[in-house]
Structures are given as structure tokens and as C-alpha cells.
Design goal:
The chain has 552 residues and is an all-alpha fold. 71% of the residues lie in helices and 1% in strands.
């Protein structure tokens, strides 16, 4: 019954999104979409509500401009409903309110005791170090607001980050058994596969319509439905959807795959994030056809990263290669370079080798990318009635531009880094205030909605929150890396250790990518990272509980 309700509600969500996309309904339909989301969250079990939320991530629609924001998505209100539901369940609030035997003061005291119990549970949990580092980060963020020119922008950023991080608590509450872990991982994998498929449909469409027509169509319908009118207006003249190869137009541009995301950078980061799940799926199934399907999906996720045209993602791959090689060759690494303590190396050597192979697979897919991009340019030239030029290669042109410091994007990024460094030098301790980065570039605060950033997540945080804030952020990252590495050693099932090892490598890939961009704080990217992290922590807790029960 629950499964049927989940499917029905998700199909209703999809239908409402399609009505907005095709212009049959306007943005006010988003209120009905929010109602469906809220209904599902309240009526479904916590686990199925979480799965419903995950499945809905690619189709969250934008709400009309209101007194709260000019471009707010339904996911924010849906998450608030979910948080309230879990809070009421965790503290048994309805029963406490209805209890007529207790006075109001006694009820207040009881509620305080339950909150104290929650804090005690966190202190005793396996994620206490992570919670402490996150708390430190938010404390520093709050202090940095003292120096903020725009207090409102800083508070909004803190609310955004805080609401996403609270999703960690929802996952740890909803996931109680190993089967629950499998269900959530499967839901994330299906969602990722859907996002990737839309990306390839995008790419195929450019063989049949001009890039100009694609730009207009996608922006007017898809972006408008999912991100609102202001984002549509911005992307109508400036976006990262295409790679350009010369100023004359003699060499046709190519599409940079981005799917339902607003840009190719956040899309490529999602593909990196989903890659470990295809490996996990391969080792979770027994039928050969299912295993082959998992390998194909792994290849498609990697190919999508190449098709995104994100040079930051391509350079970030070197970080993933270094991490995977480090794990596999750990025995040969000099002692002073051994960052983590390695457990039973031989038991995990095959796992680390598998992860390294999955990373190296990207190299084998480069020729496919080269041929496909050239084919899309040929289709463009044929439509234009122009002669084909076999001497060019779009992929290699884009790759070699990484080192071209006179290239427009590279030049702009270097200038932004220079201005950011100057701002940090002036405000080194606590920065200029979280959410206030545009002021570092002498821009208006509204520029943040148009992508104003340091194009480096570490520099961005340092500018906004100073060296102290950056230290807190690095502490969070260290706790995550340390935990995931530990799980790649200690989890009992091979497929779980493989997932942890692959996620560790993908996370290093994302962190290396962060040297060139800040899309790790994109709402969809950060949401899925938090969900997967929470699943890993629950995986460890569930196995620990099972081992304790076995000993008893």
C-alpha cells in the first residue's frame, strides 16, 4: 500500500512539473506540487517519505516570487515539513501536548529533558565529531556576521546550509535496518540515473536542432519551471551550457551537458557523486545482465563528466586518481606519507584495485567523447550547408585550453582569485561575513544569485569567514574523509567496503574540483552529499548493533 502511494504521489509530482514545463500551468501550480510533497512526507512512513523526497529532487519546481524570496523552490518548504514531522516524532510532542495530567510547567520541563536526551544521544553517537565540527563552523559563521555589510544575506545563507545539514538527522532517524540502507542507496542511484539520462537526451537533441533553438527552448521551459523567472532571465544571456572554440564562429560550439541542473559544473559534480553507486550496484546483483547494466551505467556517468565540458572536473580527476592509487599502493607508500592508519590491507586490496580501475576507465572513454563531440559539430555544419573540417577536435581543444592563461574564463578566474586574496588579506581572521562574498569584488549583494563567487570553495569560505572559518570547514572535511576511510576498512560486507572506498575517492575528486569552483554548495549537490554521508554513518551503527546482538 505504502509503495503504491509513493509511486502515485511521485507521478503526480512529475505531472505537475510537466504541466509547468509545457506552459499548460503557470508557477502557481507549484503550490499544488508542494501540497503533494507535504502530503507524501506526512502520510508515508519516514523511510518512504525520505525516498519520495530523494526521487523528487530532480523535479522540484520553483515557486512564484513572494515576500520571502524571488526564486524559492518547493524543496525548502518540503524539508521544513519533514523536519517538523521528525521533531514531533522524536520528542513525541503530540502526546505530550494532549497529556492532561501534566501542568504546562511540567510539560515544558519534560520537553527540555527530551531535548537534553537528544543532545546526549548525539554525544554518544558515531557522528559526534562531525556534529562538533559542523557546530563550530556555524558558530564562526554567526560571529562573522558582525562584519557583514548585508546581515540578511548572511542569515539566508546560514538558514540554507543549516536546513540541508539537518537533513542528516532525518536520514539517521528514518534509516534503521540494513534493508533501509539498501532502499535509500537504490533511491539515490535511480535518481542519479534519471538525471544522467536527461543529460544524454539533451546532447542527442543537438543533432536535430540548432544550439540557439535549444538554448531558447530549454531556458524558457525547463529552467523557468525549476529555477524561476530571475534565473531564466539571467541564463537567457549568460550561462555555461556551451563550449566555444573561436570568435569567428567558423568552428561550431558544442553543448556542455547539464541535464536538469542550472549549469554544467553542478551536473558534473553530481555525476562524480553517483559513480560509486554504480559500482555498488554491480556487486549487489547476481544476474549477469544486471551486472552488465551496472557497468554500462558506470561508463555513462563517467562519459557524462566528459560531456559536461567542465575542465575543473577533468583536473579534479587527477585528485581521484591520486587517491585511488594511494589506497592501492599503500604498502609501498613511505611511512611519513601515510595519512590514515591502514587495517587489513590484503583483505581490501582487491576492492582498492577495483576502485582504481573505475577511475582509469575515464581515460578509455575519452575517444568516445572526442568522436561524439566532433559528430555534433558535423551535424551543425551539415545543417548550415558548410563543408566538414576533419582537422579540428573539440575535446582536445577544450582540454588544452586548461593551461591557456589568456583564455577568457581562465583570465577571469585569475582576476577573481587576486581580488579574493586581497579581500582576505584585509579581513584575515573572520572575513567579511558569510553570504557577503560579492562585496569582495565590489559588486552588489544580489550578484550572488548570478553566480558571484571565488571560483574556489576554500578561498570563498576564507573570504567570507576568514582563516578561522576555513579551518572549521577543513575540520569537517577531515572528519568525513577519516570516517569514510575507516568504513572502507571495517565494514563487514565487501560491497559496503567497496562503496565506502569508491565514495572516498569520489569525494577527493569533488574536493579537488573545489579548487576551481564552489558548486559543492549547490542545493541539489549538497543535499545528496549529506544524504549519502548520513547513510554511511547509519551503516556503521547498524553493523555495530548487529555485532553486539551476535555476541549477546
Amino acid at each position: 500500500m505504502m509503495k503504491n502511494l509513493l509511486k502515485t504521489l511521485w507521478l503526480a509530482e512529475l505531472l505537475l512539473a510537466l504541466l509547468i514545463i509545457f506552459g499548460i500551468a503557470d508557477a502557481t501550480m507549484s503550490y499544488i506540487s508542494l501540497f503533494v510533497l507535504g502530503l507524501g512526507i506526512l502520510k508515508l512512513s519516514d523511510l518512504d517519505a525520505l525516498r519520495f523526497y530523494i526521487y523528487s529532487i530532480p523535479i522540484f519546481v520553483a515557486m512564484p516570487e513572494n515576500f520571502l524570496s524571488s526564486s524559492m523552490s518547493v524543496w525548502r518548504f518540503a524539508l521544513l515539513i519533514f523536519l517538523l514531522k521528525v521533531a514531533f516524532e522524536r520528542f513525541d510532542t503530540p502526546a505530550l501536548v494532549k497529556d492532561r495530567k501534566l501542568t504546562l510547567a511540567e510539560k515544558g520541563n519534560e520537553l527540555r529533558q527530551r531535548v537534553a536526551g537528544l543532545i546526549r544521544d548525539i554525544k554518544e553517537s558515531n557522528y559526534r565529531r562531525l556534529a562538533l565540527s559542523v557546530l563550530a563552523f556555524f558558530a564562526i559563521a554567526a560571529i562573522s556576521l558582525v562584519f557583514a555589510q548585508s546581515l540578511g544575506a548572511g542569515i539566508k545563507q546560514m538558514i540554507f546550509l543549516g536546513s540541508v545539514f539537518l537533513l542528516f538527522g532525518i536520514v539517521t532517524w528514518a534509516v534503521k535496518t540494513e534493508k533501509d540502507v539498501e532502499d535509500i542507496l537504490r533511491s539515490v542511484f535511480v535518481t542519479g540515473t534519471g538525471i544522467m539520462i536527461v543529460g544524454f537526451l539533451q546532447f542527442l537533441s543537438t543533432f536535430f536542432i540548432t544550439l540557439s533553438d535549444f538554448w531558447g527552448m530549454w531556458n524558457e521551459h525547463i529552467i523557468n519551471a525549476f529555477y524561476g523567472e530571475k534565473m531564466t532571465a539571467l541564463l537567457s544571456y549568460s550561462n555555461t551550457w556551451f563550449s566555444y572554440y573561436d570568435a569567428t564562429g567558423d568552428i561550431p560550439p558544442t553543448l556542455r551537458m547539464f541535464s536538469v541542473m542550472p549549469d554544467s559544473h553542478s551536473f558534473s559534480m553530481l555525476m562524480i557523486l553517483f559513480m560509486p553507486l554504480s559500482l555498488y550496484h554491480y556487486f549487489s546483483v547476481t544476474r549477469k545482465s544486471e551486472k552488465n547494466k551496472a557497468l554500462v551505467l558506470l561508463a555513462l556517468f563517467l562519459l557524462a563528466i566528459l560531456f559536461s565540458g567542465s575542465r575543473g572536473a577533468w583536473v579534479g580527476w587527477l585528485g581521484a586518481l591520486a587517491a585511488a592509487s594511494y589506497l592501492w599502493l599503500y604498502k609501498k607508500v613511505p611511512g611519513k606519507f601515510r595519512i590514515f592508519r591502514m587495517g587489513d590491507l590484503e583483505a581490501n586490496r582487491k576492492i582498492y584495485k577495483t576502485v582504481l580501475r573505475s577511475v582509469l576507465l575515464l581515460i578509455l572513454l575519452i575517444p568516445v567523447s572526442m568522436v561524439s563531440l566532433n559528430a555534433s559539430q558535423d551535424a551543425y555544419l551539415i545543417r548550415e550547408g558548410r563543408a566538414l573540417d576533419g582537422s579540428r577536435n573539440a575535446f582536445l581543444h577544450r582540454t588544452f585550453s586548461i593551461g591557456d592563461m589568456d583564455e577568457t574564463s581562465n583570465k577571469g578566474r585569475l582576476e577573481i582569485w587576486k581580488d579574493s586574496a586581497e579581500s582576505l588579506a584585509k579581513h584575515p581572521v573572520l572575513g567579511i561575513g558569510i553570504g557577503n562574498f560579492p562585496y569582495a569584488l565590489s559588486e552588489k549583494i544580489g550578484a550572488s544569485k548570478m553566480g558571484s563567487s571565488a571560483h574556489n570553495i576554500y578561498l570563498h569560505i576564507a573570504v567570507e569567514m576568514g582563516i578561522v572559518g576555513l579551518a572549521a570547514f577543513l575540520w569537517i572535511l577531515w572528519n568525513i574523509l577519516d570516517k569514510i576511510f575507516s568504513l572502507s576498512q571495517k565494514l563487514r560486507q565487501d560491497k559496503h567496503r567497496l562503496l565506502a572506498a569508491s565514495f572516498l575517492v569520489s569525494f577527493v575528486w569533488i574536493l579537488t574540483y573545489g579548487v576551481f569552483d564552489v558548486v559543492i554548495v549547490n542545493d541539489k549537490v549538497l543535499t545528496l552529499i549529506v544524504i549519502l554521508l548520513a547513510v554511511f554513518y547509519r551503516m556503521e551503527s547498524i553493523e555495530g548493533r548487529e555485532m553486539t546482538a551476535e555476541k549477546a
